[in-house]
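@channel sequence for tomorrow's demo:
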Amino acid sequence: SPAGTITSATGINCSGTNGYTQDITVRFAPSLAPGTYRLKAKVGTDNNTLVNLCNTALPLPDSLTFVVAPGPAYSSASLACTTLTVQTNVPVRCNSITPSGSEFAISGPGTATITGAVGVGCTPTSTTNTITLTLASPITVSGTYTLTAQNGTDGNTLRDTCNTSQAVGNSVTFTALAPPVLQLPDTLVTCSNTGITLPLTISNNDPNLTYTYQWTPAAGLSSTTI
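structure tokens (generated this afternoon):
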């Protein structure tokens, strides 16, 4: 309960009709949705519950609780220049990540092209919660972008340790701030032997970052770093 259809139950390492086991594999069809379940004992078609070595039946009521973890999904994504770091809610198989990043698609106000994907700390048979995506170039239009799961060239999305595939269309948003744009007027008029302040204007500057400046050539400038 609350729902589920049991299709079979098999004792592990049982040998013949006189075998015994403490471990039983119970199979469901269709697969159980993520959530918390209770498995309850009852009298079967053989007119008993489970029977031990002394032919004592498992008393009723008896039950246990188990959890079906959610399938793979994005939990967060953050952009730094041409690197998009993606976190998943459960560990995913490293071998389900194609090196080209074909399981991922980005949409938003600007263009973003994925050229590669790699699991952090991965070996071919291991799992990871962190995936690094490489973009062909920095995003040049600021705004909110959406990372969406799709079937890759290997025919599937990301898969967890139970081989459960991430749902196509699963998505997460992230913010891209385009590189700052620096502008000066084409011409400036001043009198001879009179200093002038260069009216530099800056747009798309990120308030969370500290910028430094280097003017060249240095000749005639009061400072090259302001």
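heads up for whoever presents: The radius of gyration is 30 Å.
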